[in-house]
Amino acid sequence: MFQYRSVLAQIRRGASDRELARSHAMGRRKLGEFRALAVVQGWLDAEAPLPEEEQIAAALAAPKQAASTVSSLESHRQRIQEWLEQSVPGTAILAALKRNHGYQGSYSSLYRMIVSIRGETPPAATVPLAFAPGEAAQVDFGAGPKLLHPDDTVRRTWAFVMTLCFSRHQYVEFVWDQTVATWLGCHRRAFEWFTAVPRRLVIDNAKCAISKACIHDPVVQRAYAECAEGWGFRIDPCPPGDPPKKA
């Protein structure tokens, strides 16, 4: 029991399992089991006095299954869960635990704890968007292929895409730029190709359409606003920073 108490004192001073095993104080497997037991018993609190040898003996005599199945990170479970909710990566969590909380375990132990926490977290609910025929179309620019320009140079193109939300029919046009004039011209040709105009257009916040992106009061580019008034559709910009709502 004196050996266990000595090892416990060294653990509380920050000694790792590898260091203790190298000094032949105790084997790695036994050290892992003893460290887990110390966590359960609250012996790693540096402010508390070391347990007496009789206490250690009594704890070791208890069924080992209870100690071996408890993670050495159990006391940090709530803290780890809060970090995961803030999208903190596992490597950063491990560094914070070692730096601020004296954790000396491996990343594999932390990984098992992360898997356990995520397994208890219900999946995020999603609601598919539903549209009536002619209700809306989604519009955006995408990267297009490199094509031969009229000036005999190969240049990058942009793909203007308008997709009807109900039928998923698409109009695609490759253009050389994303200017306001190009944006408006593509709209006109798309409407002519569909032989109809949707009641509203769901768009991303391209500069040729939205002068200032905002959740509650976006500023629409004047020429585009006049285009919407003339063709009779409503401009419905996506909220900035919300990818699931983008076209």
Keywords:
five-stranded mixed beta sheet; alpha/beta; 247 residues; two-stranded antiparallel ribbon; single chain; 7 strands; 2 domains; Nucleotidyltransferase, domain 5
Topology:
Layout: H1 2-12, H2 17-22, H3 28-41, H4 53-61, H5 64-68, H6 77-85, H7 90-101, H8 107-120, E1 136-148, E2 154-164, E3 170-175, H9 180-194, E4 200-203, E5 210-212, E6 219-220, H10 222-231, E7 234-237
Parallel strand pairs: 1-4, 4-7
Antiparallel strand pairs: 1-2, 2-3, 5-6
Structure description:
The structure is a single chain. This protein is of the alpha/beta class and 247 residues long. The chain has two domains: 2-120, no CATH class; 136-245, 2-Layer Sandwich (Nucleotidyltransferase, domain 5), CATH 3.30.420. The chain contains ten helices and seven strands. A five-stranded mixed β-sheet has the order 3-2-1-4-7, covered by helices on one side. Strands 5-6 form a two-stranded antiparallel sheet. The chain is elongated and about 90 Å long.
